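Worked Example 4.2. Consider the chain below.
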Amino acid sequence: MFVTASVGLALVIWRDPSTATSSGAADRALPADPDAAAGHLEGSSRTAAIGNVTMVLPGSPYSLYPDPMQLKGVLESVFSASAPVHERYDGRHTWSAAVLLGRLPAVVNGDLEAQGRVTAQQLSESIFDGHSTRLVDVTTSDHAVGGQAGLLVTGRVRYAIDGLPSRYDTLTVLLVGVDDGSVVVAATLVPNDTDPKLARQAAAALDSVTIR
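Applying the procedure from the previous section yields the following structure tokens:
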């Protein structure tokens, strides 16, 4: 099932089923620049590709956002999929697990360690629709992909939201440096009380990252 690409990236995590466009972070999540080598998504196989990096986004009940988005100042050319964890937890909004593949803006500098920590912090601040969050327990480790240098960053994004049983998301971010000098980012955000099947699907998507 495809979901309209006009949905803001913030709503990958925090979705309002009653509208396709409203979001407290809507000014940060925009359609990708068509001239920015946006990559593509093969719908039948659910394979997203940015440059020569690919990732198989999880199947049902995860829903695909088929067109690339951008999270201003954080990620470009983002493909994502999300699955509900708590539908209408406050009578209106749905809290979701999410998987995404994107690219760091060219202006982001530093080694992978620095880029990874900054990206994890920015994600924790940018895609929870304005809810107060705190990134804790951050760890990093080398994680090469297809012979290319890579870095794995993990942490917990803590929050306390009225009516929401979840208390934190486990955030996992994989950064891969590719030959053209860009850095591609694969990430998963999984609430602590997610159904184990959904959590396994997210982990399998991260494991599917390859370089063609």
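DSSP finds two helices and 13 strands in the chain. The chain has a mean pLDDT of 83. Compare this with Example 4.1 before moving on.
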